[in-house]
Amino acid sequence: MPSFTLAGWRVLSALAALVCAALLPAPTFAQFNSYLGGWVYVDRNNDGVLNFADHPDPEIVIGGVDVNLYKHNGVDYAKIASVATDQYGRYQFGQLEAGRYKIEEVPPVGWVDGKDTVGVLNRISDGVVPPGSNVGVAGQNYITDIQLTANTIGEFYNFGERGLAAGYVSKRYLFASTPSGPHGEPVPEPTTIAMIVGVGVGLLTAARRRG
To answer: What radius of gyration do the chain's Cα atoms show?
Structure first.
């Protein structure tokens, strides 16, 4: 093939790429940078506020709790993802597009239900509350009507538990060197009162983690 023909094809390809770039919409990956996250924890005083490890009276987190995510499809909410909280009691749903969402906690066996709280929404670029967003409404074991915009961080969508239910509070916790909680997590040897209110029942105090 003559060299000028090859050069011509290169020029033509470059021009075609420029035309496509001008005509096509912006890359869609930017629409999927949003995420929603939070913690499941033992809310000892039932105030709906998670005290992290840097607090004078930190609260304990619960790992292994299933959390579901639903997206509104114009008619109803449809389940699109499910995760379990990690050892830090943390869950996160990433790579989300703009839309209306619902987060649902599957109530952990053996725990008394506490307060669930809506989080905060901030734009990734500047930390400002995005126009058109809505933090949602908290119900029992769910937070619904979260209006998520593109490139938005949704944090502190937390689910609180009061402590172990009566049927799960037993003196047997006092006689084992490494007793287990309702989900098999190791638990420090607590006093009877501590077990009732939930102190000493989880794995770790909550640490502030983002991303």
So the answer is: 24
Length of the chain: 211
The DSSP line for 81-124 is EEEE--TTSEEEEEEEPSEEEEEEE-PPTTEEEEEEE--EEEET
Beta bridge partners of 120: 155
Spatial separation of the C-alpha atoms in residues 199 and 191, rounded to whole Å: 9
Question: In a structure prediction context, what are the per-residue pLDDT tens digits for the chain, which is 211 residues long?
Answer: 444 454 554 444 444 443 433 443 444 445 568 999 999 999 988 999 998 888 888 888 999 999 999 999 999 999 999 999 998 899 999 999 999 999 999 999 999 999 999 999 999 999 899 999 999 999 999 999 999 999 999 999 999 999 888 877 764 444 433 333 444 444 333 333 333 333 333 345 555 554 4
State if pTM tops 0.85: no
* Three-class DSSP category at 7: helix
Nearest CA-CA partner of 126 in 96, 149, 151, 146: 151
For 113, list phi and psi in degrees, rounded to 5: -65, 140
3-state secondary structure 28-41: HHHHHCEEEEEEEE
* Domains within the chain, CATH numbers bracketed: 29-197 (2.60.40.10)
The whole-angstrom separation of Cα 26 and Cα 3 is 35
